[in-house]
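Class, discuss our next protein.
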Amino acid sequence: MKIIPLKEGNFSASKTKDFTLLTEENFDNVEGIKMSVQPFLIITENDYILLDAGIGWKNESGATVISEILERENIHPDQITKLLLSHLHKDHIEGAVTATDDGFKATFPNAQIYIQKRELDFAMEKKGNPSFDFTILEQLIQLPNITWMNEDKGQITDEISYEVVGGHTPFMQVFWIRENGETVFYGADDLPQASYLKYHLAYKSDFDGRKAMELRLKWEKEARENRWKILLYHDLEKAVIEI
């Protein structure tokens, strides 16, 4: 199993969820919550699995950061076979669709996209909430290759399992990928940074901060016992940790 972090950069997120790329020049002056945006590509014998899709950040040349990283790894977007979405906040889905002169298209055209149906229903009740980009979301859900997930937990393949855990959003789901005795765990925004394991806090930015905190305590124990590799979507410095 190969893990490739697809870090778009470190950003400051304002209260209205506008993202500003952090640089050495502005790091100390930009207000907002500082975080990375870092999807992950997991390559197994059977699949090229993308865990969340980022915000589709573009560099000065107009190319997306993720496409540049994939190109350096000699991977084409057509090779992605599965896109697993933990939840539908804008910084996790915007990279899944690409604007063209004729509208929008799937960024990863051959990928089956896995979306929790109850998470979509929750998002659609929150029109006007700046955590969601409803223009992108409405384009996303029109794509042809979507698997609508309704179960609380289960197997996507023999290697990929999921569970709807809530916490950050009511129906956020997390994923395990297991192959050849190795386990990769993606806790998405219930476990976005390594510091969340150091400080046992309930965060007000979560829908149910106490539940997310309790889940982290549970996962920390299981990760230590089973030697999971933990993927950190929003950590400024780290991508993958073991505890």
About this structure: The CA atoms of residues 11 and 68 lie 18 Å apart.
